Records
---
Amino acid sequence: MTYQNVPAPVAPEINLGDSFVTTRVDAVVNWGRRNSLWPFPFGTACCAIEFMGIVSSVFDVSRFGAELVRFSPRQADLLIIAGTVTYKQAPVLRRIYEQMCEPRWVISAGACASSGGFYDCYCTVPGIDEIIPVDIYIAGCPPRPEAFLESIVQLQKKIDKESLVEQRTVGI
Amino acid sequence: MKVITPQGEHVDLMTLNVGPSHPATHGTLRILAALDGENIAGCVTEMGYLHRGFEKMIEQGTYSQVLPYTDRLNYCSAMMNNIGFCKAVEKMFAITVPDRCIVVRVILSELSRIIDHMVCTCTNLVDLGALTNFWYFFNTREQVYVIWEKLCGARLTNTMTRIGGMYRDTYHGFEDDVRAVLVKIESAVHEVRGLIEHNKIFIDRTKDVCAVSAADAISWGWTGPCLRASGVDRDLRKDEPYYGYETYNFDTVIGTSGDTFDRIMVRMYEMIESVSIVRQALDRLKPGPINTLDARLSLPSRDQVYHDMEALINSFKLVYEGVRPPAGICYDATEAANGELGYHIISDGGTNPYRVKVRPPCFTQYAAYADMLTGSMLADVASSLGSINIIAGELDR
C-alpha cells in the first residue's frame, strides 16, 4: 500500500512574520480554537460506543466545547480515531485526514488505534501513527470517559502553546 | 450509468457510495447504490472493514484468554458473548455451573440485552433525527454501567464470566442496585415509547419500509428480534431453553409485517420482558457457591494448595496451562441480543482451541440488507440499517 506524499496546506498567516500583532493575536485565536473543537469521530469499534458515552449527558463533552460532532471532514478540526483500524480501513482514514482543513488535530483513542491493541494480526494496523500524525494518545481498551475528557483537556493545553506563524504539520 | 432493462428501455442511473465512513454505517460498512431518482434500483453491500482476525487470534491463546476477545464481538452487550462462550466450553466438559452462577448469568444477560437494545434503538432514532431519545436511553445505560463497574471494574468490555463460573461473586447491595435501575429502565422505555409510538413522522419513515416477510427472513437465516419482527415465533430461550429460561414467565415479542417499525418496536417491548425476567431472577438469587468445584476448571482454595500436593499440582497446571476440554466438536448457541450467537469449537484435547467458528447473528442480517434496500428509497438506507443492528465487531470478526 503506498500513499502519495502530499505536503500539508500552509496557513497564509505564515507570511506575517513574528511581529507584535501576530504574537498577541495567537492568544485570541488559540482561545477560540481550543474552546470550540469540532470533532470528527472516526469510530469503527468498541471505543466508538464509549465516545457516544462522553457525548451523552452524564459525561457531557460540551463542558469542554467539543460536542459539535461533524461527520464531514471538511467541517471538523479534531479527528478522533476510536477503534481498530484494519489495512482495509487505512486508506479511508488517510483520505479523511487529508480532507480535513488546517488546523487539524488527531486523538488516537484506545489501545487498538494507538498500537493495534491485542490484535497482533495480519489484518490490523499496528497503530494509526503509521499512516497519520497523532497529537494525543489515550490508553485503555476502551478508554474510560474520564480519559477521553482528559485527552481533550490535554489537547487544549497543546493548542495553547501553538502559534499562527508556525507551520503546524508537514506532509508525512 | 446507462442501464438497458429487459424491455429495451434505457434508464439513467446514478451510482452513489455510502460509507464506510458514514455516521449511519458505524464507520465500517459500505453500500454502493444505483439510484433512479431517489429510489434504489439496485445495490451492493460490502463488509470486512473491521476484520480483526478474531478466529485466528484466539487459536493462539488458552481457552481463558479467548474471553477478552469475545467481549469485542458485540461490544454493546459484552457480557452475553462471554456467557455464550463459557457455556459452550462448559458443554464440552459436560458440567453444569452452580445455581447461583446460573441466576447471576441470567440477570447479567438480560441487563445486557436491555442495554444492547437501548444502543440499537437510540442510534437508529438518531439516524432518523430523533436525538432526544438518545439522551433518555444513554442516561439509563450509564446507570447499568455503574453496576458493571461495581461488579468487575470495567464499563464496556467486562470479561466477567470464567469457564465454570464467574470472575467473582456479586457485591453487597447488588440486588438493590439492579432493582433500582430496572425502575429507571422502565421509565426510559416508557418515555421513548411515548415519543415515537404514535409519532407521525416516525411512523411515516418506518412503517412498511424495508419489510422482510417471514419466509424471506427464515431463508436468509435470520434470528433474534429481526426474525421475530417478521412474525416468526423463534426464541432460543423458549425453543431450546438453557439456564432454566423455561421456568421464567415472559412473553416472546412478535411483530407482524417485518418492517423497520416492527423491528424497533420488538426491541422496545423485549426490554420490558427482560425487565420482568431480571425481577424473577432476583427473587431466585440465593446464597451459594458461584464457581464449579470441578477440579478440571476451578482453582483449589489456597488452604488446600498449601497443605495438599495434589491441589498444588492442580493449581499449577490450571494457571500455567489452562483448562483442557476433551477432544471433540461442540456447537452451542445462546439467544444474544441480536439473535442466535453460536460458538462452534473444535478441541484437539489441548489447552488452545484448535478452531473456533463464531456464528454471529448480524452476519445473516447484513447478507439480506442489499435485498431489503432494493426498491426502497435512499433515505431508508440509514433507518433500516439501524433497525437490523449491525455490530461490525461480530460481523467482520
Note: Chain B has one domain: 54-368.
---
Amino acid sequence: MGRSEKKLLHGTLDTLVLKTLSHGERHGYAIARWIEQETDEAILVEEGSLYPALYRLEKKDLLQSRWGVSELDRRAKFYALTDRGRQALDESTAEWLRFSDAVRSILAPGS
Amino acid sequence: MDDRVVKPSVDREVEEEFDHHVEMMVRDLVDNGWDEDEARAEAGRRVGNVERWKADTRAEGRRRDGDANRRLWWDELRQDLRYGVRQIRRAPTFAAVVILTLGIAIGANTAVFSVVDAVLLQPLPVTEPDRLSMIWTRYLPISGFDIEKFALSGPEALDIADETRTLEAMALFTTGTLTFTGDGAAPERVNVGFASATYSETMGVPPAQGRWFDASEDIADGPEVVVLSHGLWMNRFGGDPETIGQVVLMNGTSTEVIGIMPVGFDLPSDARAWQPLRITRESQGGRGGHGIAAVGRLAPGMSQDDLDAELAVFRDRWAAEYEHNVGHYAWSQGLYDEIVAGAPERLRLLVAAVALVLLVACANVANLLLTRAERRRTEVAVRRTLGAGRSRITRQLATESMVLAALSAVLGTGLAWAGLEALIRIDPTALPRLDEVRLDGTVMGFVVGVTGVTTLLFGIVPAYIAGKRASGTLASAESRSSGGRRRTSLRRLLVGSEVAVSLVVVVLAALVVRSFGALVGTDPRMDPSDVLTFALSLPSATYPEREDLVGGYEEVLDALGSLPGVESVAATTNLPFTGTGQWDFQLDDRPPRQEGEVAWNAGISHISGDYFATLGIPILEGRTFGSEDREDGPLVVIVSESMARRYWPGESVIGRRMGYEMAEDSVPWMTVVGLVPDPVTGSLDREPYPHVYVPHAQGGISTYFLPSTMQIALRTTVEPESVVPSVRSRIADFDADLPLYAVSTMTDVMAASYAGPRVTTNLLGAFGVIALVLAAVGIYGVISYSVAGRTREIGVRVALGAERREITRLVLGEGIRPVAVGVAVGLALAWFATRLVEAMLYQVEPTDPATFVTVPLLLMAVGFAASLLPARRATRIAPTEALREE
C-alpha cells in the first residue's frame, strides 16, 4: 500500500492529533508515531501535513505549545490540548462516529 | 537555560522542530538495527520534499502569530478600556468637567458644521450648478445711483439672450405671489416663478411629469398654463396622476396644469408653481424698467471669465447707444455664490469662532489631564515597576482619553441636535437653505473626525509626556519636588494660550453684539407696537376696473375699522422694514435732469386709509391724505425728510411739485402736501433714503400703475394677535375667495429684518461666554494644582511668619501672570482677527476702543476670580499639615 493511498480524509488528521494529545503532551514526532502505531501503520502521517496542522490548531487556540527537553536530550516543542481543544475533540469524535455509523449502515447493513 | 524560555522566531521554531523530527526518526531506525549513515539517508527519503513542508509550516506559523498578536492587542485594548472606565468612575468630577467641556465644544462645532454642510456643501437641485451663472446689473455713481447688484431690464436681458455665445442656454425670470384656487380647497397664496420657455432646459431640470411651457405659450396673450412643484401637487392634488390637463384658477384666471417638477426643485425663491414670463422689448418700463433676473448655462469649455468678457462687450456697446447705460452695465455671478450670498461671511466667522472655542476646550482638557497625570505619577510608577512598558502606559492613558472623547462626542451630538432643532424652530429663514440642515452621515463623519483631532490635541500629548516620564522609578515618583518646574511652565503656556484664544473669541463676539445692539437701537422712525399686518390681493378677475380695486380696498378698510379693539386701519404697497422700488422723477421748479447729473429718484409707497396714524409716523409739516384726495381730485404727494433735505434744503416743501414722466414730455404733476420722516426700508442699518407717498386712489394716474396687492395694517387697543380671528371672518364675509397671508405683528416684521444678524449674534455671544467660562476653569485648575503642589513651601512661609496677605499676593501673582501674557498676545491676535467681522459691523469700529479695553479687563477679572479661591485656600494652610504632606 503506497503512502498516497493512505492519505487522510480532510479534517480527520486534526481530530487524530487532538485525540493523541488527550493522553498527555507530546512533541510532533511522537504524535506521528503514536497515530501510526495505534492504526497498525494503516495511517501514515506525513510531516508535510502534520506540522502545518499543528500550527493551525495552535492558531485556533485548540492546542498550546511549550519548549521542553525530549528523550534525545534536545530542545523540542511539546504540544498539549487547551480546554477548547478538548471540547473540539469531543465534538468531532461524536461527529465522526455519526458519520461512520451512517456509512456502515449503507455498506454493511445489519452488521 | 534562558533561551528555553524565550520564544524563538517562526523560522527558527520550524527549523528546530523539523531537525528534532528527523533526529528522532534516525534514532528509531538506528534502534531497529540500521547503520547510522543509512538511517540518515532513509530518514531524508521518508521526509521527502522537506523545504516545501517547512515553507507550509512557516506560513501557518506566521498566521498563528499574527492572530495571537491581534488577540493580544484586543485583550490589551479591552483591558485599557475597562481600566479607563474605572478611572473615570473613580474621578467623576474630573470626568464630568472634561466631558462637559469637550461635549459643548464638539456640539457647537457640529451644529455649525451641519449648517455649513447644508448651506454650502450640499448640491443645489439643478444639473451641474457650477455651470450656471446669474446675470445682474451694476450702477456706478456716475449713473446717479450707486448700486452693486440690480435686476436687468427687459431689453437689456433680451439683448444678452439673443446674442450670447458663451452661454448655451439662458432664461429670464421674475417672482411673484398669486392666489391659487379652483381645485375646491381653500384659497392659498403661492410663490410663482415667471420664467421663459428656456428655464427648465437652462436649469437642466426637466419636469417629472408632463412638460414645461414652450415658446408658443411664452408670448403675450398665449394660452394660460402652469407647471406645479412636487410639493404643491402633493398638497393640493394628493399626488393625483390625473392632475395634468386639469384647469385651476391663478388669481382668478383659468389656467391649465401642463407639468409637475421633480421633488426638491424650488428655484427661484421657494417657487411652488411656474408660469410663462411673456416679456418683450415693448414690455412696460422699457430699457429703464428693471425687474428681470437672468440665469445662463455656460457652454462647454466656457468659464465665468469668458461670460464676463462677453458682458463687457455689451457694456461698451450699450454705453455708446443708450443714455440709460452710461455707468450702468451687466455682470455675472455664479449661481452657487448667488444662493448663499451674504451667508458665507457670517458662516466663516461662526466657523472660525467655534473652532477657536474647540481649541480653548482642548487646551483646558489637556491641562486637566496633565494635572491628573501628576496626581497619578505614583500609580504609573507602580505599573511601570510591575513590568508595563512605556508605550503600553502611553497607550493606556491615550485609551482613557479616547473613552472621554467618545463620551464627549455623544454629548456633543446630542447638544448639536437640540441646538439645531431650536435654531430651526425659532427662525427657519435666518440663513439661506437652513431648512435643509440635518445631522446626516457627513455630519456624523465630521463628529468622528473632530473628536479624533480633539483627542490627539488634548489626550495624546499628555499621554506621551506621562509615558515618557514613566521611565522614572517608584522612588523618584514619591518625591513631589522633582522635575515640577518644566511641567508647570507647560501648564502656564497652555493657560496663556487659552486666555489669548478666548480673548479673540470674546472680542469678536463683543464687537458683533455691540453692532447688533446699535442696529436694534436704531430709531425705527415709527411706532411698531400694537400693530397687526397682513397682505391682501384683490384679483383682477373679480376687480377688473380701477374703481373696483380702489373701492374694494376702501370697503375692506371700512369693514376692518369698525372691529372692536381696532383703533385705525391703513393699506400700503410696502411696509416699513421691507424693500421698495425706486423711481426716477422730475421736478417742475427746475429744468429736466442733465446727462451726468445725479439722478432724482425716491422710493414710493401707494397708501390708503389712515396710514401715518396707524403706523405711528408723525406728520412733520402739512397734512395727511384725506377723502378729497381721490381720482378726480388734485394730484398730491407726501415726501420724506431726506427728499426735502436733498431737493429743497432749508425751505418748506409744501406746494412744491414733482411727477413721473409717464410718456414723452408728459408729467402729471403732484403737489406736495405733507412732510414725514424717512421710512426704514429693508433693514435698520440702511442709510435713510428719499421716499414719497401717493394716495392709492390716484395710483396709475400720477404713477405708473395701480397696485392690486396691498399690506393692511391695523393699530389695535388690545393685543394685536387677538384680533386675527375677527379680521379673518370679516374678510371672509367680504369675499370668501380672498386669502389672508403674511399675517404678522409689526414688531415681528421689524424683528424679521434683522433675523440673520440676530442668529449670528446669539451664536457668537454664546461662543464668547463658553470661551470665558473655559478660560476661568483652566486658570482655576492650574492655580489650584500649583497651590496643592506648594503646600509645603507655603506652610514653611506661614511658619516663618508670612502674613496671609503676602500668601494671597504670592498665589494671585502666580495666577495672573500667565493670564496677563495671554491677554497681551490675545490683543495682538484680535487686532488682526477683527478683519473677519469688519464688513458686518454697524456703527462699531473693528478696533472699537470700548471693546478692546473692556474685554482684556474682563479676562483679567476672570483670571483674578479664578485664582482667588485657591489663594484663600492657601492662606488657610496650617504649617503642621503642610509638613505632614510629604
Note: The beta strands of chain A are 26-27, 63-69, 75-81.
---
Amino acid sequence: MRHLMSPLDFSVEELDQLFDLASDIEHTPEKYAHTCEGKILATCFYEPSTRTRLSFESAMTRLGGKVIGFADANSSSAAKGESVSDTIRVVSCYADICAMRHPKEGAPMVAATKSLIPVINAGDGGHQHPTQTLTDLMTIRSLNGKLGDFTIGLCGDLKFGRTVHSLINALVRYEGIRFVFISPQELRVPDYITDMLCEKGIPYTEEIRLETVMPDLDLLYMTRVQKERFFNEEDYVRLKDFYILDKAKLSLAKENMLVLHPLPRVNEISVDVDEDPRAAYFKQAQYGVYVRMALILTLLGLAK
Amino acid sequence: MLNVGKIEEGFVLDHIQAGKSMDIYEHLGLDKMDCTVAIIKNARSKIMGKKDILKVECDIETLDLDVLAFIDHNITINVIKNGEIVEKRVLALPKEVRNVIRCHNPRCITSIEQGLPHIFVLADEEKEIYRCKYCEEKYSGKEFRK
C-alpha cells in the first residue's frame, strides 16, 4: 500500500504516468465517471482549508465515489483529545482512502504508519503540501508542453513559502531548468536550497526587482509577500510594489510566458492581469482536480 | 598522575571529547546498570590534548553502539577480555536514531502525539546532519559535542 507524504515519494517515471492519467482524465472525463463507485474518501482536515478540501471532494465525486470527513479539528474527536494514530485507525474502518491536513508537521506520516488505507498528505503545517506541487508540475507540463528546458522565476516570499521550496525540489529532477529567484533580501530563498542547486550544477540567479528579469522568463510563479515578514515598515513600503504583478510589468514578458500562483491571491497579482492569456492560475486550480483524481485512482490501485 | 587499574572483562571508550564523559554515561544508560564504571576526565592525550575515558566492566553487547556513534563517532572502543584488548571497534554514523534526542520543533507532531518515538534519520553523512523523520527539523551530531 502506498501513501503520498512528499512530492518526491514518486519517481519521475511514476509522476509521468500520473500526469498521463490526469491528462487522459482531462480529455475524456466520462471514461472515469464511475471508476470509484463504491469507494469512500475521508477528508480529515484538522485546520480550515477551502480549495484543497473542495478539490479533493470534487475529484472523488467526479470519479463516482463518495466523501466523508470533517473540516476542522473542533468538529472532530481531536477536540476530545484523540490522537492522530487512533483517529486514522477508526477512519480506516470507514473509508478506502484518506486525505489529511493537519497543522502539526508530520501528522499525516504518523497516520500513514498506523493506517490500513492509503493516506494523502493534504498539507502539514509549513512542511509539505505535495498535491499542490503535483498540481504545479501538471500545470507546467500541460501548458508548457514539457517539464524541462525552461527558465522559471519564483517571486515573493521565497524564505517561508513551502510551495516554492517543494516545487524547486521537484523541478531539480528535470533537465535544463534555470531558476530566477526574485525576492527582497529578507525573504530570499534559504541557503540549503541554493547550496543544493550549486551541488547539482543547476543554474540560478537572485534578483530584487521583478522587471529586471521579466523578459528572460518562460514561467513566473508568484507568491505573496506578507508585511509581517519584514523587519521594518520602511523596507516594506519601499519594496512591496516590486512584487505586485500588473499589466505594465507583464508587458515586459514573453508572449507565451505563463503566470502561476498557488492561490489564494490577495493583491500580489493585479486583477487586470486575470484576462491576459498568460494568466494560468485559475487553470492551475482545474489541473489540481485532475491530478488529485489521478492520484486517488493510482493509490487505490484503480489506474489502468 | 592519577592511575586507574586495568579491567579484566568489559570495554574502554577512548578518545571521548574532554568534558563529555558524563553525557555519554547518561546516554548509554550506564547509571542504570549494575556494573563497575570508571570515568576519567581530562586525561592527557597526544592527539586531542585532553580527553575523557570510560572504563566499563560489562558485556560490550549491552552497549547501544548506534547511540554512541551518533553522539561521537570518533570515540574508539577497545573490547577487553582477560585484561587484554581483543578487539578495536570503529564507529560509523547510524542511519537512524530512536529516542536519543527529542525534536524541538514546536510545530512537529511529536510535540502533541503521545507515545510517538522521536526518530532522526541521517540526511548528510559528511556534515553529520540528521533530520526528524516527521517534520525534517535539522539536528547536527556536532552540536552535541559543542
Note: Chain B has two domains: 10-89, 96-144.
---
Amino acid sequence: MIFHPGVLALVTGSVIVLVMTLFSVILALRIIIGWDITKSTARQLILERQTYLVAVIMKYVMGFQILSLFLFIYTADDIHQLFVGAMCATGSLNANPIGWPVLFTKIVIFFLCCLWLAINHIDELAEDYPLVRFKYKYLAAITPVIALETYWQLDYFLGLRANVITSCCSSLFSDEGVTVASSLASVPVDTAMYIFYITAAIEIALLSALLLKKTASPRLRYISGVSSFIFFIVSIMSIIAFVSIYYYETPVHHCPFDILQRQYMFIGYPLYGSLFGGVVFGLAAAVTEPFRKIASIRPAIDHIQRRWTKISIVLIIVFIIIATWPVIFSNFKAYDGVLKPPTGGTGVKGDYPPSSLIFYCCVKEKSCVS
Amino acid sequence: MKGHGRIIEYALSTLARRKFKNFSVAAVFSVLIAVLSSILFLMHAYKTETLKLLDNSPEIILQNMSGGRHELIPTEYIGTLSGIAGVGQITPRYWGYYYDSLTSANYTLMAFDETMRDVKPIDGRMPAADGECAVGRGVADLRQVGIKDDIFLTLGTEQNVNLKIVGTFTANSAILTNDLVVLTKADLIKFFNMPADKATDITIEVNNPAEVSMVARKIRRTFPDSRPILKNELLRTYDNIFNWRGGIVLIMFFGAIAAFMIFVWDKATGINAEERQEIGILKAIGWETSDVLQLKFWEGVVVSLSSFLTGLILAYMHVFYFHAQFLAPVLKGWSVLFPKFEPMPYIDIYQIFVLFFLTVVPYVAACVVPSWKAAISDPDSVMR
Amino acid sequence: MDAVIRTEGVSKVFNAGLAGEIRAVSGVSIEILRGQITVLKGPSGSGKTTLLGLIGCMSRPTEGKIFVEGKDVAKLPERFLTTVRRKTFGFIFQHFNLIRGLTVRENVMLPLYPTEIDGKQMERRMEEILEKLELTAKRGVNVGKLSGGQQQRVAIARAMINEPAVILADEPTAHLDTKLSEDFLNIVTALNMDGKTIVIATHDPLIYDKPYIDHVIEMRDGAVREAARL
C-alpha cells in the first residue's frame, strides 16, 4: 500500500514537515529560555534573528498543510479501487478506522497554524515583542498534534489492506444508515437549509456588529469567535446535507469530496477556500482579543481586528453565494419545491426507492466510478 | 503589495545575473523531475490501458481447480450455472499458452467467441473460418509476418496448425494483445488436444453488479472445487501491482532526491563572497531581514517552478512522443514479447500534484535554513 | 538648534566574554545638531566607523542610549531599527558598495524596493536626484562601467533616494584623488545647504580642515578625545 506514489508523497512531505517543526520547537524553547528584550547582547540578537526562521518555517508548514489536505483527499480518491465497495475517497477513508481522524487532524492543524501566524503577526508589530513567550509555548503545544498527524497518516496507509470491504459515499452519506454522516444526509433538505441560513445570518450579523463601533466590546468578539466556529461546523454539514446534492443534481449523492473534481468545474476549491478563509479570519480576530490588554500592541490589534473582520465577512459572503448558487439557478430541484415537500413527506427521505438510487449514484455517476 | 512586486522583480533580475549557478541547479532539478515524472506517467499509462481493457472483461471468470492448480473446466457446469438467480450470459472460453521455440517467446492462444466481437480494435478482421487467425503486433513483428501471410505453430507431429493471418491488433491495445493469437475454437481444441467436453474457463455476466459477490458465493457452494475470479479483484490486483512497481522505482529514486537536497543545501549555503556582499549591501541600505527572506523565497519559487515545468515537459515528450525509450527497458523486461507501448497522451492533475509534492516540497525544505542564514547577515558587515 | 542624534555613554563590545573581546566604542556621549556638518576624526581602529554604524541604527550598542529624533533606539529589535534607519539615514560607504551588474537607476532605487512607495513617485525622485548629480545620461549604464567618481555619485544618489534627514559617510574620500574629493565635498556642502545633517567619519585632513565643517569629534581608542564646535 505504502508504495502508491501519492502515499509516498504524503508520507515524505509529512515527515519533512515534522522534522522542520521539531527544529523550530528547539529554537522556540531556546527563545523561551533565553529571551530578554532589555539586553542587547549578541545572544539576544541571535534569538531575535531565530524568530524569523521559526516564522518562515511555520508559514511553510501552513502552506504544506493546505496542500496536503487536498493531496490526502485526492489520494484517498485514487486508491478507492483497491477496496471492495469503495467508489470514491469516502470509501477509502472508511477502509481504515483511522482515516477520518487523519483528515480531521489535518484540518485542525491548518487552523492551529493559521492562528499561530496571526498571533505572530501581531507580536511582530510591537517593538517589545510582548507575546514572544506565549507564541512559542503555543508552538510547542501544537507540535504533538503535527507529530500525531504524521503518525496517524502513516498508520492509516500502512493499515490499509486491499479487499477490505468498505462503504462507498452513497452508503455512508445515504439516508438509510445510522452513522453521523448518514444522519446528516437524511436531514431533510429544507430543515438543513433553514439551519444553514439562520446560522449564516447570525454570523454575518455578529461580524458586522463588530465593525459598527471603532472598538468592539470584548464579549462581542468572543461570541463572534464561537459563532465562526459553529458556522464552520454547520457549513460543512450543510455541504453534505444539501449543497452537494444541488451541485451533483442527484438527490442522494452527498459526497463532500466529489465537488473538487473536474466534472463539477472544481467548484469545491472556491467553496472550501472561501469557507476556510472566512472562518480563519473570523477566529483570528477573536483569538487575538485577550492581547488587547497589552498596551504596546493595542492600537495594532484594533486596526488588524477590523481588517480581519472585514476579510472574514467578504469571504463568508462569497461562500454563501457559491453554496446558494445552484439552489437558485440549477435545473435540479431536490424535490418539486424544496421548501414545500409533497403531502406527508418532510423532504427527500422516503420519497425515492433508496436502494436503486444508491446504485445509481455509485455505478452511473462518473465521479464515483472513475 | 507594491514592495512585494518589486522584490519579485528583483529576484528575477538576481537570478538572471547569476545565470550559471542557477542554471546548474535548475538543470539538475529538471532532470530529476523528468525522470520521476516519466516513471509515474508510464506507470499510469500502463495501468489505465490495462484497466481499460479489463473494463470489458466479464464480471466473473470461473476456473476449475484440481490439486490447487488450474484445471480444464467441464462445459456441463454451464447448465447448472444458468440456474443461479442473477446470472446473465455464460460463455465458455478456450485458450492456452504456447511456447514458440523458433522465436523463444510465449504466445497466448485464444479461441474466438462472441464476447470478443467488439472488444478489441484490429486491422483486418477476426478469424471467421478454420485456418484463419488474428495476431498481436508483437507476434507479427517477431515472426515478421503481416496480413495474408501464413503462420505455423507446432507442438509436435500431431498438434500443429498452419494459419492464415486475417487481422492484426493495433498498437493502442498492445499491452494485452501483444502476444495474442486468436484462432477458431476448432483449431484451438485441435492444437491443444483438448477434450471436447471441457473448456479453459467460463465467463459469467451478472445482471446487477451489486450482486456479483453473492453470485460468486453461490457458485462456490455449488462447485466447491471451482474458483470464481471477480473482475473487481482483478482490477484491484492490477492496480496494486502497478502502484507497487511505480512505488519501488520511486523508492529507488529517493536516493536521488536526497542527493539533490544535499546539493541544493550546499549550493544555497555556500553562497560566494559576491552574493554575501550583495545581501550585506541590501541590508545596509535599508532592507529588512524579512525582505531578504522574501527575495530568497521568490528566487526559490522561480527556480523550482521553472524546473518543475521543464521536467514535466521533458517527461511528457519522453513518454508520449519517444515511447519512454530510456525508461521502458528498466520497467518491463518480464517478457520477450513486452509490447512496444505507445501510450495515449494525457494530463492528470493528481499526478502533477504528487510530483510537486515529491520534488518541490523537499527542495523548499532544503532551502529554508540556508536562505535564512543569508538573510540575517549583519547590516554593518559592509562597513567593516 | 536641536539634536538629531544624541548618545549617552554608548559602548560597543565585540565578542563579549570571549578571549578576543574588543571594546570598539566605549562610553561615548555626543550630540549631532540638525543642519550641521559633523566630522568624526581619528586614526583607523579608533572606533569611528563603529560609532557611525551605531548612530546610523546599523547595530545596537552593548551599553548606553542612543536617541534618534528623540526616540531611544538602543534596545529596539532589528526589525524596527531598520525602519528607523530607512526613514532617517542615508549611507555613503567607503567602498561605495554598489551592486555590480545593475544599472545606475536600479542601484539608486534599490533602497525603496521593499517599501510601499508608489512606483511612479520612486522614478520621479530618482530622476530628480540623478539630474542634481549630473548622472542623468548614465542612468541606464551598468555601474561596473563607471569611473570611481561617478560610482561615488551613484552611491550618494542612493543615499538620498529615501529623502533622509541625516546623511552618514564612512571614509568617503579614501578611494578618491584630490580633485574628486573636492567634488565630493562640493556635493556634500550643497546637500547641507538643502538642510541635510551630515556626519562624516574620516581621517583625511582635506576634509576636517575645511571652513564649513561645524563640528569635529576626535576619537582615539573608542572614546572621544576632543570635541570642538567650530
Note: Chain C touches chain B through 34 residues (CB under 8 Å).
